[in-house]
Every structure is written in C-alpha cells, then in structure tokens.
Write a structure and sequence with these properties.
Length: about 1200
C-alpha cells in the first residue's frame, strides 16, 4: 500500500510509476489518510485507474454504492467500503458501474478544479502541487477520453475558461452574444474567481519566478533550493506545452510567452531547455489558419536575426556555453562523441531540429502566398539541420525542402533560387548506405542511439535516398543547367581516380537529373547549352577506359540515362553500341568468373534498355546485331543468351517504323525457337518424375559411397549422372526464363502503347505451345512437397533441406540480399552444396513458373485454355503447398488471373473452381496456423519488418511467423483489391465497386461466397493490424449489399459480430478499435429492422439482458447522427470489454496525436516506400546480378 504521507512530500514521478500497478486498496489508503484536497484528487485518479484495471468479477458490489452519483462518493466511509467490496463484482454490472464512476469522478474532479485549484493562482508554496493537478486534468480532458461526452464537454469549457484571463473571457462571451450564439455559462462562472490573470499568464509568471529563484539560489540549502526551483519551472513548461495545443490564438499573443521561450532554449539548465523546446515544438506545429494570427504570434517573434541567432547557437552548441564556437566543436570528434553519449543534450538537439522543420512545414506556407521577412536566414538555419551527421536530424529536413519546393511562390522566390546550388551540393551526402554509416565513427555513434537494429538503419537510409532523389528532381526542374553542370563536374572529377561507391552515388544523382531533362520546356538557347553539356559528359564516359568490373558496372547505367539525349548523333550512337557490345564479351585475366559474368550481364541488359528507349534509331543496326548474336551464342551462358534475345525483341517490338507483318515475322523469328526449345525439355509431370530430375536417389547413393572412397568408379559414374541432370535442369530454367523475359518485356512494359503494337496478335498462337509444359512443371513441383511420399524415400535428414526454404528465399523473406549459390565446378560433388543447389533451383523454377503463368491472363485467349483439369493441375496437392508458395502464387498468378477476368462473366465462370480451391485452402491454412501461434504463446513480432542483424540469429519459429504474416498481408491485399471501391464522388455515376461484375459473381455464387465471407471475418481477428484494418474497410463497404440478401443474415449477425467483438477484446488490435466499433454499429443499424440474429448473438454469446438490449435498440433508433450512434455503441460495448473502448489511449489528433508524442523516426518513415515484398526480377529476388 501507499504510505500515508502528505502529497507535497511524495515524489510525483514515483506516484506516476506506482499508478500503473496501484490497487483499489492503495487508492483508498491514500485517500483516507486525512490529507488535503490535493492528495484526495490524486487518490481519485488512482482509484479510477485501478478500478478500470482489475478483473470484472471483482467489482459487483460497487454498483449499488454508485447508483446515485450525488451521494457523496468522496466520504471516507464509502471509500473504505470500496476497498473491501471490490472483489465481489460480476461482469454483468460493469456497464452501470463504469458509467457511474465516470459521472462521479467528473463531478468530484470539477469541484476540486473550480473551488480549490483556483484559490492557489497566486504564487504560493502550493503552486507546484496546483500545476501537477492542472497538468493531470488537462491530459484527461483534452488528450484522453477519460470522460463520457457530456462531462468532458463541460470540463473543457471550465478548463478553457480558467486558462484565459478575465479580459479575454469577456471578449469571448461578447463574441458569442454578437453572433447570436448561446453564452457559455461555464465561462460566466469562471469570471467569479478572485484572480483574473488566468492559468496561462499565471503559469508563465510561475516559470519566470522559478527560474529567477533557481538562478539566485545560494547559501545554506542553495543546491536543494535550486533543484526545487528548476523542477517547478519544468513543471510549468510542461503545462504550457499542453495548453498551447488548443488555447485560442489571442491568448498566446496577449502574452510575451514565445519571446521568453526563445531565450530559454539557451538556459544553463538542460531540463529547462528541453521544456522550452517542447513548448516551441507545440506552438510551431500548430496550424494558425488566419494569416493575421500567424504574423502576430509566430512571425513577429521568430523571423528576426536575433531569434535565428539564438536557434543557431542552441542547435550548434547543445552542451557548450555560448562562448565556445561551433568550429571548435567540429574540430574535436571527441566532443561530438561526448555529446552523443550524453542523452539529454542530443535529445535537445533533435527537438530543435523538429522545431526548425516545423517552422518550414507549418508556419511558412500561407494561402495568401506571403513570405516572412528574413526568409534567407531561415534557409541557412534549415541548412544546418540538413548537414548534421545524425540520420534522424538531417533526414527530417528533406521533407521540409520538398514541401517548400511544392509551392510556386516559394520555389521561385529570390531567396530560395539563390540557395539552390547549396541545396544541390547537400544531396550527395544524403545518399548514404548502411555500411557507410557503420564505417563513420560519428554517424555510427548517432545511429547507435537512434536505432534499435541494423534493419532500422537500412530502412532509414532507403527512405532518405528516395526523398533525396525526389528533391533533386524538383531542383532540376528549377535550375536544370546548374544541376546538370554540378553532376557532370562531379563525375568527371571522380573519373580521375574512380571509386565504385562514389560513382554509384553519382549514378543515382545523374538518373534523377536526366529523368527531368526530356520534359523541360527550355528556350532554344538553353536547349543548345544543355545538349552540349550532356554530349560532353557522354563523350568523356565513352572514352573512359577501365577493366575494373566494379567501375564498369557503374558506368554502363550512365549510358542508358543519357542515350536519348545524344542518340541523334549517329557516330556517338555507333561508338556507344560498339563499346557496350565489347563488354558483352568482356574478359579480363585475374578477374573471378562471377565478376566477369556480372559485367557481361550488365552490358547485355544495357542493350535491352537501349532497345526500349530508342528502338527506331536501332532498327538500322538490327540485322548486324542479329548476325553477331547468332555467332556468339554458342560460347555464351544461357542467361546472357536470353538477355541478347531480349535486346533484339525490344528493337522489333517497340519500334514504330516496320509494318505489322514485318514486325510479326521478326518477332516470331526470335520467340518461336525459344518456345520450341522449351517444348523439347523433358518436363516431368509428377512428383516421382521431378525427384528423378533432381537426381535425389543418385545423390544419396553418392553420399553413401563417397564416405568410403569418393574416387571409386561407382562415385565417378554417379557424379556423371548427377552432372547430366544438372545440365537438363539448367536448360529448363533457361528456357522458362527466356519465355518469361520476352513476355514481361512485351506484355507489361509501360512503353508498349507507344509502339502501336497489338501484342495479343503476336502471342496468341504461341499459348497452346507454352501452357502444357508450364502446367506440368507446376504440378510436378507441387507434388514434390507431398510429404508422405517424400518420407517414404527414407532419405537422410539433411536431404529435407531440398524442400526447406532456400538461402535466397530466406534472404528475401528477411528483406536482405540473397546469397548466390556457387556453380558446381566440373567433377566437383559436395553433397551439402548440391542440396543447396537443388533447393535454389526449385525456388527459381517455381517462382518463374508462377510469374510466367501470371502473364498469360493478359492475353484473352488464355481463358479458353483454362480447363477444370488444368486448374486441378495448377492446384495439385494444395494442402501441402507451403505458406511462402501460396503467397507467391496469389501475388504472381492468381491476382492477375482474377482481375483480368473481372469484367467478363464468361471468364469468371471459368475461374469458379480455382477460386473455390483458393478460398478453402488458404482460409483454412491461415486459421489453423494463426491459432497455433496464439495458443502456443510463441508470439514473436508485430507487423513491422524483421529486425535481426544476421540470418543465423533468426529462429525457425520467427521465420515461420514472418512468412505467415507475409501470406496474411498478401491475401488480405488481394481480397481488398477485388472489393475495391470507387471514390465517393464517383459512386453515384459508376456504382459502389470498381469491379461490379466480379463482386456480383463472388457474392451470388454460394460455393464462393460462404468461404470468402468466412475468410474475411477470420482475417479481421488475426494479429496483423494492416490486414485487419484493410478487411474491416471491405466488410464495412459490402455490408449494405449483404444485408439485401437474407442468405447472409447468419454470417452478418453472428460471424461478423463475433469477429469484431473478439478483436475488440484483443489488446493487440487497439489501433483499429474505432473501425471495429463502427462495423458493429453499422451491423446493428442495417440489421435491426430485418432480423433478430444480432440481438440473439449478444444474448447467447455475451449473456446480455433482453430488456437492456431492447432499450439500447430504442435509443439507437432515436439517434440520427453517425457519431452519436458510435458513442452510444461505445457505452454499450463496455459490458463486453470490461473496460471502456476509449481507454485505448490518445485521441487521434491531426492524423497523428499530440505532437510531443510523435516519434521523429516514424514521422520520417511514414512516406510511401516501395515494399520489399513486391516480387520483381528474380535475379534480384535470389541475390543475383542482372
């Protein structure tokens, strides 16, 4: 129990700590200790918190004591009864108890608020206690849903009235009268107080008083006195920060508080500096729509040379006296490291960075298109933030630059235009990679403080690079010549002493700049200057000679970036093609073969990109390259051969010059031999055939014999057999990769419309030749995972790794670069290495098959080939398909197959069997595996990405959960796309759904609708917030449609309701409580007049009283506003949850809550970033070069 001591002897932070574990008895003991109103106030908070935290079964007897809130709850006798009777409360009385508690506590707290706290406005010894209570009340009223709406609204009126001065209150009351509004009686009552300053002004004076007392503390007890004064000042600043978030603007500019806060960020006290920074951050993050308010409150005090100098000194010297210059700080890495090791100064520096960024994002942009004076001073200040070595601090500025450049009147201002060169030169340092952070002692020291794992650093660097590229593109549109000149000079300088990492950064910069050049509208003179600059750089790149593979891999992409600008020069174009072709055949003594292979692949893909970008200019070279490629093919690898076929195909397909017949002849001349080669492959059509192709039994026999003598004739024969099968598998992989590459290039490429080519004409006759082997391959792979058959082979345990996740797949799942499986040297036979190779081959061929199959639905003729037996083959042994394979199949194949048929009823009928299998197998699999995880208690992670730093640290359980999360996310995204809604402003014209025929087909086909709706309900309950929120939106959207069909009443009234209620009782899903309440509310509203199923569900499953339910329905029927209905439901659902739904935490405010509660990391990472789970090039997926 809490000690019975006076409140001013208790440490407030201690009380806040024990609040989390306080019992009812603790609260009663504190209350009944016969102390003053302050202690009683805090005891009430403890009691309220503890009662809401205990089990519902402990609270039964309290209801009778609380039925009449006006019956002096605060009397000691009743409080003692509460402590002895709390253990007897039953669940069914919770609703009444909780409502009584809220009303009573609101009443009691208000009495203390008005009659007691206002008496201590003068600066007295009890001012600190007064501020503690004010701070607690302010949080309860404005930032937490501690009270039901009516008491909360009343308390807001009282609180706001007591914060304002009497003079301002009179003004506000007069305004209400002038507009004919109802005068706030609570404000009138506030005028009765003895002190007319209001809490805002009084707290400002209290802070000044405390700081003065701290500065003059000396003599006996001087240290303790100074510490007490510092604590009091900090408490006042914390209260001011809460007030600034909502108080009327006039209350702020009638004080000198902002000017005073600017001086306090240079205070000797770190705690006071941090408190002042918090106040400033709240003020600068607040949007003042009226330009007059912004000018008077913000601009007048902030945009002055003195204020900017204060910001600069405070930011540059967070731990040092003003007399020490920033240059001395920079010259001493030890000083910087000391700053990092001392957490509070760095925290202050981060707060100051947030403040500076908030000024740019919130206070500078105006509808009136006005700029504050001394705008250039602000840009200099923002530039300091941009160049800080901390990723968190410097990264925060990039978004500000982007926002400023979005506004035409700002980006064309002389101040910003003159600052552009500085901004361009800053960007390269932001394209930093994680390894560069770890190699820099200062940057890595900051990163150690800011980030919890290497993965966080990787993601932060990725987002920072993406934002920097966006910023550079915006700058290039404003100053194209200067931007290109900057990157050209940078590259030319680097070529003098080339470094691959630096050239990689320059490549990113060049791509961002070059991407803007074609769209620029320049005067003829500017165009000429720019063309000469581009041509000069291109010639330098072309003449540059190097045999270093790392350097060559950075130079080749630069050719692609600039080729469109220089390709009109026929001589340059010819030289470029010759240079790149020479690298296709690259060889250098002493260079490892994998590096040679990577350079060749890079050169070949460079040619492909040329073919896509400038096909008409390459048509004259087509015959010559076709001859060269035919001559070189015998000595080239399968992968390189496929890239060169892609190059020829890109010229033919995207060119606009040949007529259709010529293009078709050339097209078929490239593709038909590849398809024929694919059909020549001896593709197994069963698990047994696939195991034979893998050479598993030969490998097992080799392992047995090699243990005795690996050089024996038997072993040599087995090696030859295994090597022969390796070659067959290599050909199969190459053939399907070639077909996939050609189809991807011509079917999904964004430039296909520009070519004027109807790709359906070219591919249609080839489908019947491609499909059989493709389906055989998928069927055989699926059958290989039939575990009963596999176990009958009685292989050694390590052979199970063939079916387990491969090295490349594992790296992909964990968001890391895959490890390349080394090629087997001739005659080499290491069993473990071969097992890894087989696992990798299976992963490649499966993914390639899925993706190839996923391209076929774009060809309409495909659906006529999709017979039930073919679908059965595709879903062969579905119950043994692993989660990672289901994810890939849904994403790569099922999704495009369904969406391409969405507006065609005949095609949809063909897919019925496919979809039925999908809904049944995937739904059951997800339900089973999520249940196992929850029941086992081995719940390892949230929705965030895996954060372990090394693969070996990731357990199989965590990896399996991660894969399950990926499947859940993919499946929920697929279903949400099916039920995608038209924008609300278009629904009247186009209807509710983007795919109306597809939705109608799914909901009208009983064999599909039942498993589908069950899947939707289950997805809401899984511990994957992203998926739950996504599916809640689907259920809410389709609810009006479902309620029109009585067949769905049971699903709506029971399954949907129960999935929402179960999730509401799951503390993991607090983020989506509002959506869950909205869904249940909508169900009750839509179903109330149509069926009693919902009411029966609450009665049967929740044990709720019939009369109570009818009374609730009566109240609901009389409520017209959606917000009021949801609030009524909040009260209703307390009986189910055992705690008010509103207890989940902060109210949503400005899409992110109170600014001081926002994580600067999460704010930065909230940008749209391409998901690492999107399957792209398989070479990237499995860690290979292009």
């Amino acid at each position: 129990m809490l000690p019975s001591v006076h409140f001013n002897q208790l440490n407030f932070k201690y009380l806040e700590t024990i609040k989390q574990n306080a019992t009812i008895a603790d609260a009663v003991n504190l209350y009944t200790s016969g102390l003053d109103q302050y202690t009683q106030f805090y005891a009430l908070n403890l009691l309220e918190h503890s009662i809401k935290s205990v089990q519902k079964s402990e609270l039964d007897i309290l209801v009778d004591l609380l039925k009449f809130p006006a019956e002096k709850l605060v009397q000691n006798k009743l409080m003692s009864v509460l402590s002895t009777s709390a253990l007897m409360m039953g669940m069914e009385e919770w609703l009444k108890l909780d409502e009584c508690l809220r009303l009573v506590f609101a009443e009691v707290k208000f009495e203390i608020l008005f009659y007691q706290i206002t008496d201590f406005l003068p600066l007295t010894q009890k001012s600190e206690q007064c501020l503690i209570l004010l701070k607690t009340l302010c949080e309860d009223i404005y930032f937490y849903e501690t009270y039901s709406p009516v008491p909360r609204k009343q308390l807001k009126s009282y609180f706001s009235g007591l914060v304002l001065s009497s003079e301002l209150l009179v003004e506000q009351i007069e305004k209400q009268k002038n507009i004919g509004g109802e005068v706030d009686i609570f404000w009138i009552r506030c005028l009765e107080r003895r002190d007319g300053r209001g809490w805002l002004k009084a707290t400002e004076e209290w802070v000044d008083y405390s700081i003065s007392d701290m500065e003059h503390a000396n003599g006996v007890g001087g240290i303790e006195r100074g510490q007490n004064a510092e604590r009091g000042a900090v408490l006042g600043l914390e209260f001011l920060a809460l007030i600034f978030d909502w108080v009327i603007p006039r209350a702020i500019y009638t004080t000198s508080v902002l000017t005073r806060l600017l001086t306090l960020i240079s205070s000797p006290s770190e705690l006071i500096r941090l408190g002042a920074c918090d106040c400033l951050l709240v003020l600068y993050s607040r949007n003042f729509p009226a330009i007059a308010d912004r000018k008077v409150i913000i601009w007048s005090a902030t945009f002055t040379p003195a204020a900017f100098d204060t910001f600069q000194q405070a930011f540059l010297n967070p731990t040092l006296p003003p007399s020490i210059s920033h240059s001395s700080l920079e010259s001493s890495s030890m000083s910087t490291l000391n700053l990092i090791s001392n957490a509070r100064p760095y925290e202050i520096q981060k707060r100051l960075a947030q403040i500076i960024c908030a000024i740019g994002e919130t206070q500078i942009p105006t509808k009136e298109e006005l700029l504050p004076r001394n705008f250039r001073n602000y840009l200099d200040l923002l530039n300091l933030v941009s160049n800080h070595p901390s990723l968190v601090i410097s990264g925060s500025s990039i978004s500000v630059w982007i926002e400023l450049l979005k506004l035409d009147y700002i980006k064309r201002s002389p101040e910003l235009i003159s600052f552009m060169p500085n901004l361009v030169s800053f960007i390269p340092s932001r394209l930093i990679k994680p390894e560069q952070v770890s190699n820099d002692p200062v940057k890595s020291s900051y990163a150690d403080v800011d980030f919890d794992s290497n993965f966080e650093v990787e993601k932060y660097c990725l987002v920072q690079r993406q934002k920097s590229v966006i910023l550079l593109g915006m700058i290039t549109r404003l100053i194209p010549l200067e931007s290109f000149e900057f990157i050209a000079n940078r590259i030319c300088g680097q070529l003098q002493n080339p470094n691959a990492e630096e050239l990689a950064i320059s490549g990113i910069l060049l791509e961002a700049i070059a991407g803007q050049l074609n769209d620029l509208k320049l005067a003829d003179e500017q165009k000429g200057v720019l063309f000469n600059e581009v041509l000069t750089l291109f010639k330098i790149l072309l003449e540059f000679k190097s045999q270093d593979p790392a350097i060559l891999k950075q130079i080749l992409p630069m050719y692609v970036m600039l080729i469109e600008q220089v390709s009109r020069d026929n001589i340059i174009l010819r030289q470029t093609l010759e240079k790149v072709w020479s690298l296709v055949l690259y060889h250098q003594d002493g260079v490892p073969y994998p590096e040679i292979r990577n350079v060749r692949a890079k050169a070949a893909t460079t040619l492909v990109k040329f073919g896509v970008k400038i096909p008409d200019l390459l048509i004259p070279f087509y015959d010559g390259f076709a001859t060269r490629i035919a001559e070189a093919i015998p000595s080239l690898s399968w992968g390189l051969r496929n890239h060169l076929y892609e190059f020829l195909l890109s010229i033919v397909y995207f060119s606009t010059t040949p007529d259709v017949d010529v293009k078709k002849r050339l097209f078929l001349g490239i593709v038909v031999p590849l398809v024929e080669e694919w059909n020549e492959c001896a593709m197994p059509d069963s698990a047994e055939g696939m195991r034979n192709l893998l050479g598993i039994m030969e490998l097992n026999q080799y392992a047995i014999n090699a243990a005795q003598d690996p050089t024996s004739p038997t072993c040599q024969l087995l090696v030859a057999q295994i090597t022969e099968k390796d070659a067959i598998r290599g050909k199969i992989h190459s053939c399907i990769q070639a077909i996939w590459s050609c189809m991807r290039l011509t079917i999904t490429n964004k430039r296909k419309k520009q070519s004027g080519t109807d790709y359906q004409i070219f591919w249609q006759p080839l489908l019947e030749l491609i499909m059989p082997n493709l389906v055989k391959c998928i069927r055989a792979i699926h059958g290989t995972w039939h575990l009963p058959s596999w176990n009958l082979l009685n292989l050694p345990p390590k052979f199970n790794d063939i079916l387990n996740i491969s090295i490349g797949e594992r790296a992909y799942v964990l968001g890391r670069q895959g490890t390349i499986v080394e090629d087997l040297e001739p005659g080499e036979m290491a069993v473990d290495k071969q097992i890894r190779s087989l696992s990798s081959w299976l992963a490649h061929i499966r993914e390639q098959s899925y993706q190839t199959l996923g391209l076929l639905p774009y060809l309409p003729y495909y659906y006529t080939l999709l017979t039930p037996s073919l679908i059965s083959s595709i879903f062969h042994e579905a119950e043994y398909i692993d989660n990672r394979h289901w994810k890939s199949m849904i994403q790569s194949f099922v999704k495009p197959m369904v969406l391409c048929a969405a507006d065609n009823s005949d095609r949809l009928q063909v897919l019925q069997g496919c979809l039925q299998s999908l809904f049944l197998f995937v739904g059951n699999k997800l339900e089973t595996e999520w249940s196992k995880i929850v029941e086992s208690g081995n719940f390892n992670m949230g929705d965030e990405m895996m954060e372990e730093t090394a693969d070996e640290q990731v357990s199989d359980e965590i990896l399996a959960e991660r894969i399950l999360r990926d499947l859940t996310d993919t499946y929920s995204e697929f279903l949400s796309v099916i039920f995608a809604f038209e924008p609300k402003n278009m629904q009247q014209e186009k209807g509710l759904f983007k795919n109306p025929k597809l939705v109608q087909f799914l909901l009208s086909t009983s064999t599909l609708s039942q498993p589908l709706l069950r899947n939707l309900c289950s997805l809401v309950t899984f511990k994957h917030t992203t998926s739950s929120r996504r599916i809640l939106a689907v259920l809410s959207g389709i609810l009006p449609v479902l309620t029109e069909n009585p067949e769905f009443y049971n699903v709506i009234g029971y399954d949907m309701v129960m999935c929402a209620l179960r999730t509401l009782n799951d503390g993991y899903q607090k983020e989506i409580y509002t959506e869950l309440i909205s869904l249940v509310c909508d169900i009750y509203v839509f179903m109330g007049s149509k069926s009693a199923i919902v009411r029966e569900t609450f009665k049967r499953e929740m044990g709720m009283d019939e009369m109570f339910l009818k009374e609730f329905e009566r109240q609901l029927s009389q409520t017209t506003q959606q917000k009021e209905k949801q609030m009524l439901f909040r009260q209703f659902l307390k009986n189910i949850m055992g705690v008010s739904v509103s207890e989940i935490g902060k109210l949503g405010k400005d899409n992110g809550g109170f600014v001081l509660n926002k994580s600067e990391k999460l704010v930065f990472l909230s940008s749209d970033v391409k998901s690492g789970n999107d399957v792209g090039d398989l070479g990237t997926l499995f860690g290979e070069e292009e």
